[in-house]
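Table S4 entry, DoxX family protein.
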Amino acid sequence: MNFKLTRFELGTYLLRLGLSAVFLWFGFSQLLDSIRWVSIVPEWAVNLLHIPPAFIVLGNGAFEVILGSMLAMGIWTRLISLVLGLHLIPIMFDLGLTAIGVRDFGLVIASLSLSLIYKSPEKQTDLQRTL
């Protein structure tokens, strides 16, 4: 069994684990202290879903914990990173050009990039393993 990682493999693993850590942190934060997050739930989300902001926060927290865990475990990495990246787009636009909005822009780009470049080790060719 070969445990040597290429730079590409190491980079994608670090990107995957770093993103999962961010989503898990925010997800658990929303689940454990949802009151702190209620104030940033946009009015359009409440009107669209017809549920209280606290429930939106809890649902979003559960969503981010579940998908963040799947990302950390490498389950459906391309699909999960795509969904998480798309999930952040309305949040990013709602926050606008603030420090948090710009941070979310970086997370969107990182998540979408991972969905485009990730290949499971079983699907890589010998050439890709050496790059």
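The CA atoms of residues 6 and 129 lie 6 Å apart.
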